């Protein structure tokens, strides 16, 4: 008699969470449950994905929980980990990410993975960083830039990040700079192309440093208009759109080749942010259900992850991946 298919519970079915459930439903091999404070949204998503709408208490009986609701996630993650349920968090809030990392012992003691930052940036940014780093003999710089937002919660977080404190690594020392400063023109894949990007309160350097411990310089920036920067320390003047337009992420890795030459490699994608984030979270949820053999906190970019296979799944979910190396070749995900 075959074992029952694992249950993945998606908590939060907004723009991105609903796509996570849809992505999982398309891949089969798992049973889907959805949780949302809005009962009508949970029922509608369950109907379209062939899953079940449940309440939060019943989610503790799942094998994996994907936290796709607005941050903070740490309290919920602790609750599920304490009940032996693996967690995939999509949080991109710096304080929340730190609180999730503080659950290291809890996840390890329960011998289950806690995936932190399974979205676009952080998330896909880490996978692309590992993909590029594996082409180099040494890596000493990683720079992440992103453009666009997903649903309303993502737009609010984007707004807060520009008005917050940027965290970066410079010559091995952590530096704190005001968000909205440090303009840099970043080129993203078509159709997004070039945007001015600025320092922002993003957790990418914190997470990437856990798996690229020898890298001496890390930065994270996001695109912004003059109005974005001017209003970033004020309450949002108007409600965000239900979903942003085409977003993008760009990862630049610098280091040395075997022959000693210095090389800069760049990879990225341009697609709706919610599509990219959902594809990453769904791929990580499937990875967790496949008996990964890794317990404790898991950061995308970890050398123990099957990066190539994960990127292949993400690309198959409608996220086009591009590599910019000056040699005009596509990323071999």
What do these coordinates show?
- It is a single chain.
- It is built from eleven helices and 16 strands.
- The protein folds into two domains: 7-119 and 277-312, NAD(P)-binding Rossmann-like Domain (Rossmann fold, 3-Layer(aba) Sandwich), CATH 3.40.50.720; 124-276 and 318-324, Dihydrodipicolinate Reductase, domain 2 (2-Layer Sandwich), CATH 3.30.360.10.
- The protein has 333 residues and is an alpha/beta fold.
- The chain has helices at residues 15-27, 39-49, 74-82, 94-101, 104-109, 124-133, 152-162, 204-211, 226-231, 273-289, 307-316; strands spanning 7-11, 31-35, 52-53, 64-67, 86-89, 113-116, 138-147, 165-170, 173-178, 184-187, 194-199, 217-223, 246-256, 262-272, 296-299, 322-324.
- It has a seven-stranded parallel beta sheet, sandwiched between helices. A seven-stranded mixed beta sheet has the order 10-11-12-7-13-14-16. A two-stranded antiparallel sheet has the order 8-9.
Brief overview:
With 333 residues, the chain is α/β, with parallel strands linked by helices. The protein is built from eleven helices and 16 strands. The C terminus is likely disordered.
């Amino acid at each position: 008699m075959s074992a029952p298919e694992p249950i993945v519970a998606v908590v939060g079915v907004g723009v991105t969470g609903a796509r996570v459930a849809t992505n999982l439903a398309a891949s089969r091999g798992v049973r889907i449950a959805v949780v949302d404070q809005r009962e009508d949204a949970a029922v509608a998503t369950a109907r379209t994905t062939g899953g079940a709408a449940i309440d939060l208490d019943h989610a503790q009986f799942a094998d994996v929980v994907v936290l796709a609701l607005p941050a903070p996630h740490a309290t919920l993650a602790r609750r599920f980990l304490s009940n032996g349920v693996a967690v995939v968090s999509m949080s991109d809030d710096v304080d929340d990410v730190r609180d999730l990392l503080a659950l290291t012992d809890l996840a390890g003691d329960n011998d289950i993975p806690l995936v932190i930052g399974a979205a676009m940036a952080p998330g896909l940014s880490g996978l692309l960083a590992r993909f590029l780093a594996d082409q180099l003999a040494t890596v000493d710089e990683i720079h992440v830039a992103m453009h666009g937002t997903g649903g309303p919660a993502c737009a609010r977080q984007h707004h807060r990040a520009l008005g917050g404190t940027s965290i970066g690594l410079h010559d091995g020392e952590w530096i704190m700079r005001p968000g909205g400063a440090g303009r840099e023109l970043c080129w993203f894949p078509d159709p997004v192309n070039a945007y001015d990007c600025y320092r922002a309160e993003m957790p990418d350097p914190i997470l990437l440093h856990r798996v690229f411990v020898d890298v001496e310089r890390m930065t994270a920036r996001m695109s912004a208009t003059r109005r974005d920067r001017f209003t970033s320390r004020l309450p949002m003047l108007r409600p965000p759109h239900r979903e942003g337009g085409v977003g993008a992420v760009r990862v630049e890795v610098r280091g040395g080749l075997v022959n000693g030459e210095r090389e800069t490699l760049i990879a990225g994608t341009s697609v709706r942010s919610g599509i990219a984030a959902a594809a990453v979270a769904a791929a990580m949820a499937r990875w967790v259900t496949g008996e990964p053999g890794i317990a404790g906190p898991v950061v995308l970019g970890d050398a123990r992850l099957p990066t190539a296979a994960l990127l292949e799944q993400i690309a198959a979910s409608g996220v086009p991946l591009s590599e910019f190396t000056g040699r005009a070749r596509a990323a071999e995900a």
